[in-house]
Amino acid sequence: MFELLNERLIEATFYGILIVLLILVFILFSTMAAAGSAKKKLALLENELEKTKFELDFQVKQSKNQENKSLADKKNLEVVLKKNQELEVIFSDQNIVLEREVRKQTQEIRETNTKLTKVIDELDTFIYRTAHDIRGPLARLLGLSQVAILDVKDAQARDYIDKIGFEAENLNNILARLSVIYEINHADLKKERINPEALTKEILTEIEDLEGFDHVQFHVYVQENLSLFSDVKLLS
After folding, report:
1. Among 48, 59, 153, 160, whose CB has the most other CB atoms within 10 angstroms?
2. How many domains does the chain have?
3. Per residue in 66-99, pLDDT tens?
4. Residue 212 domain-assigned (yes or no)
5. Where does the pLDDT of residue 45 fall: very low under 50, low under 70, confident under 90, or very high at 90 and above?
């Protein structure tokens, strides 16, 4: 009986120890599994932390680069603004000098034009007066040549007198044109509407007494309803 109890006790102890061992093994494996899972989670956390750290570093670098760029842009802007101000001062000074030079040149041109106009007026007046003074003696020379041609019988002398009269007439025409030019340049123009057809008839009437007028045929064509706006004295 005692031996049976001992066997039962030993068997119970054995099974108890076995159960404890199984429990310990289970706890060990559970702990190892939990440790592996924790290790994996720790690795994931480390990866996430590394990724977050990398992103933070990148953002910090980007922020610094942006800040440096902003500072550089600001500095460049200040340099550009300063350069523009310097250029504006230079251009302003150059414009002032240029304006002074232009005013000076303009004044000199005006003075030169005034002097030139005065010289031209004096020259015109001199030519007009000279032509007027010469035309008197020239008219007398023409008259004498016409009288001489009637009295002189020598052919060679008559030829000389004809040539003198011809050249005197040419000179008289030149002086007459110079006088007309002077009168045109100094005329007080009075512009008015003119009928070309009526003006043409008036001019023909004025010259019909000239020698040889009857031997000339005039063909006048004036466009209908044509009118001019000018000085009638200069045209006629």
Report:
1. 160
2. 1
3. 766 666 666 776 776 777 777 777 777 777 878 8
4. yes
5. low
